[in-house]
Amino acid sequence: MPAIWHEAPRRWGHPLHSVCSYLAMFPPQMASVFIRWLTDEGDGVYDPFSGRGTVALEALLQGRTGFGSDANPLAHALTKAKVKVPSISALERRLNELEQQFRRAPDVCLAQVPDDISMLYSADTLRQIVFLRNELSPLGFVDPFITALVLGMLHANHSQGGATRGFSISMPNTFAMAPGYVRRYIKEHGLVAPNVDVFQMLRVRAQRYELPSMTTKAGRSWLGDAEKAVPAEVAQAKPKLIFTSPPYLQVIKYGKYNWVRLWFLNYQGNEVDQGLMASSSLSRYLAFMKKVLDQMKTAVDPEGYICLVIGDVRRDKKQLNLADVVWTHAAEPAGWHQHATLVDDLPEGRKVSRIWKENSGRATKTDRLLLMSPHSGVSLPDLPEIDWSITPDFSSLAMEE
């Protein structure tokens, strides 16, 4: 079955999926197959480890209601921008309003900005960024989307021709290396931060994402731990499918490598990592997954499905089938019915954890998709045929002014 989503072009999917880079994300093709296969239009689809919001957005584009939660505030911010997408006209009006406010009072105080942040930007650029950091609201449709746009452009590398793709000096990676490393990198390469018009760059970038002509009615995102109960409206909606990738065994430090973006959201990277599940203890991991599966059983439709994307990891120089361990020690004892475990071998070099020496080899190129239902009476529908030449868009979705 993985051959179905491997048939799709590698960059298939709506451009909004790529509004901001994120570590260890699965492709929208994979989520799209399961959403089309296991749900109908109008059904709810939920991802309790939502990451950059791939599942929620793909659910929306397929005419479903997308729900996404994550304990990482960066993930929440990105998912929130994708479950309620503003119209392009509303976005442009708000950017114009914000720019006018800034131009009337451009003397934004930079005294409280940490040196590790200041080294990345010119003074003029930083004033615009700090202004937006102070003014953007977490409420509504438009400001959360602008926040996601900013997050995606806070740091980036420059093109070979010298054009900047973001607001910062040319960063060596799409994630943020440690401040000391970045400081040395700036010095060694003699980098000078570009002086850019943040508002204009946001306008140009927004045009890439094929935003709808009217604001979408889509779903909900919330900042929350997957071990905790879902909001009442989600419990009442009873999502037909939960599709998610739980954390692996201490592979990635999401806060550590997103410290710039988390600063914009008023968080510290180390504090975020302390609140996320990241342990090399298998017993602790299984205890966590038991609690997560308990919450999934209360949330999912009794006739629905959950699919856990769990990568093999290396322990004691051996490859551990973590999906099988989760099934044997957490899911099966709790009464889940297993339909199948699908094996997806990723192309060499695609696993993001290869870039960290301290984690080298912990993640492998094998993902396993553990497909289950709350009880044995649930059967699988026929697989649909998918035309990968068609990319879903917002044209057929419910809208509002």
Class per helix and strand makeup: alpha/beta
The overall average pLDDT, rounded, is 89
What low-confidence regions span 5 or more consecutive residues with pLDDT below 50? Answer: 349-361
**Beta-strand segment tally:** 10
C-alpha geometry: globular
User: How far is it from the N-terminal to the C-terminal residue, by CA?
Assistant: 41 Å
β-strand amount: 5-15%
Radius of gyration: 21 Å
Percent helix, as a range, is 25-40%
Summarize the structure.
With 401 residues, the chain is α/β, with parallel strands linked by helices. Helices cover 37% and strands 14% of the residues.
Top keywords for this entry?
401 residues; alpha/beta; eight-stranded mixed beta sheet; 15 helices; globular
